[in-house]
Structures are given as structure tokens and as C-alpha cells.
């Protein structure tokens, strides 16, 4: 279990063990940081309408969130991951029985994209999944798909999750982020050994078209609306319900042994470092294999305790889940990692390897803090916004 050490007045403190009350340190549980995203339902509705205006134009304009291809290098095996307790699991929710046998891999209903605006104002996306929680309102992704590590401007703007996203379509609605939970070391020090995040989301919102109204009705309407060319329009919206009720939620596991099979999902889109672009980012892809028995390090990101998986995908896959014990019939498994970095192990300028933080008891602490937080609705029964 790695600790970042900081000198303080001649002494050395381990950040994961900082005492409550020290200036500038995390309060209560030192492993968990949380930050608000959309502060109220009005902000949440504004975020949703930002992405869905003009028939989802902003969604279609978004590109994968990644770094320069020169950063794709070989990772090295060193050290070892550190289980800090007994293995544990939280069961998934969703299909109660198998949907039958299939020769091809069934893509989980829980898989989708998170969309946001980065520090330079560009529309971006990462991969993510719905994960089981007490209020069925939780998303699992990478920490760098929530916090802007490039500009140090804290949270990424206009953050939403769209399960089953396909070319501007939002089949189960759009879910606006309410509160982001990460490890304190990632939030504060951008420690990629803790590159994971769990985000609570409001109930989904669906827009069902546009209606022209008179000025009086336009002024009294509290939902998304627009005046154009001397006419007044309101966006017809409805509450899509809770995320987990609509698509289910993957389980969660921690302190598991490596060397076990996982199936990783995501939306690869960027070209390989050699310029070859085999993926469009339009549809999700999957990889299957066993995780590395030893931890792997990416020196350029100061990574020491990642696990690896042979997988020839490209960025855009960031944040996608690594699922243990995946049932192809039920489309459910246990999130035991998220894609964090990409590597070229054989030196041919093609990505052939992905890595994830090792999920230990500290990961479970972040997840447990997030899974118990309620979020609520954005839209009322008549399309009005809750205040």
C-alpha cells in the first residue's frame, strides 16, 4: 500500500494517515475526497440541456479525452500490489436470469460514456459504467475523467453520464453528475496509483422534442427553454428514473488476487502512436485476459502499483471497467479495475497493453462513501424543474 510522503517541519507524514485537524489535510477519512459537481437541480438541468441542445450536437462533437501519443511507452514490472485486508465483493443488480447463450460477447447495458468540458474548453468523453449503490445512482470511471489533471482546475465542467450512448442518442436518458468521490491522494497529488472515481448522478432526464408556446407560458416555465426569431419554445422533458433501475449496476470487488481473468470494456477512438486508427469510438469494444500477477509502473506518471492487461485498444477506453466473473448471459460482473493508462510493450508504436490501479481496501473506502449518498430528481411530473 503506497503512501506519498511529505516533509513537514523536518518530519515526514504519510498522507493516507494524516491526523484530522492538520492544516491542509483531508478531514474525517483521510482516504476519501468528495466535491460537488452540479450544486442544485437548476444547474443540473442546465448541464443536461447543454449537451442535448440541437438534437445532441455537443455530444456528437465531443472527442476522446487523452494525452499525447508520445506518452504511450513501455511499462515495467516492479514492486508489488498491497492487499490491505480480506477480499470483498458487493453483488451487482440487473438481469435476474440469463438472457441465453451467445457466441459473441454481450455488451453490458451499464456501459456508456461520460461527457465533460476540459480546461481548454473542448468537448470530451471517457468510458464508464453504472455500478451498484444503495440509491442506484452511481457511476464508476477513472479519476482523470473527473478531475482536470492537465489544467489543475479541479473538476471537469458539465459532467454527465450517458449509458448506451450511440451517435447522439441517449436511450436511457442523460445523468448529470452531482458529487464526485476520489482518493485523497489523486484529488490532491494526482497520484495515478489512485486513478479511480465514483460519481453520484441525479435521476436521468430525457427530452422529447420542442413545443412552441406563447410568451406568458414561456416566462412561467421553469424547464429548459429558448427564444428564437420572435418565437418561444420549451423543451419537453421527463424524469427518466434512477440509473440503476434502468440499466442495472455492476458489482464491485477489492483485495482480489491478480492473475485472474477479467473482461474490460470501453470505447477506443484515438489512433495508435504510429498513426493507425482502427477504432471509431462509436461502439464499445472488449478485451479478455488475465491480469498481471505483479504490479506495473509507468515512470512518467510515477505509477508503482498498477495491474496490467494485454489489450490492443487506444485512448477513449479510459475509465472503462475491468469486470471479474462476467456473466455473458446476465451481462453483469464485478468492477475490479478501470482503464487508466496505455502502453507499448513490444516497441512497435502500437498500444498493446492497458493498466489499472489495484483495487484495495482504500478503494473500497471511497466506493463505500459514494454508494450511500442520495442524489434525487431534476424534473417533476409536468416537466418542471425541482428547486
Notable features of this structure?
387 residues; mainly beta; 6-stranded antiparallel β-barrel; 6-stranded mixed β-sheet; 5 helices; 24 strands; globular; disordered N terminus
Account of the protein in words:
The structure is a single chain. The protein has 5 helices and 24 strands. The chain is mainly beta and 387 residues long. The strands form 6 sheets. A 6-stranded antiparallel beta barrel has the order 7-8-9-12-11-10. The chain has a 6-stranded mixed beta sheet with strand order 6-16-22-21-17-18, with helices on one face. The protein is globular.
Strand content: 25-35%
Total helical elements: 5
Helix content: 10-25%
**Could you tell me how far the N terminus lies from the C terminus, measured between alpha carbons in angstroms?**
44 Å
State Rg.
21 Å
Number of separate strands: 24
Given the C-alpha coordinates, what overall shape results?
globular
Would you tell me the structural class of the helices and strands? mainly beta
Low-confidence stretches: 3-28
Average per-residue pLDDT, rounded, comes to 85
The sequence of SSEs as H and E is: EEEHEEEEEEEEHEEHEEHEEEEEEEEEH
The profile of the biggest β sheet is: 6 strands, antiparallel, barrel
Strand numbers in spatial order across the main sheet: 7-8-9-12-11-10
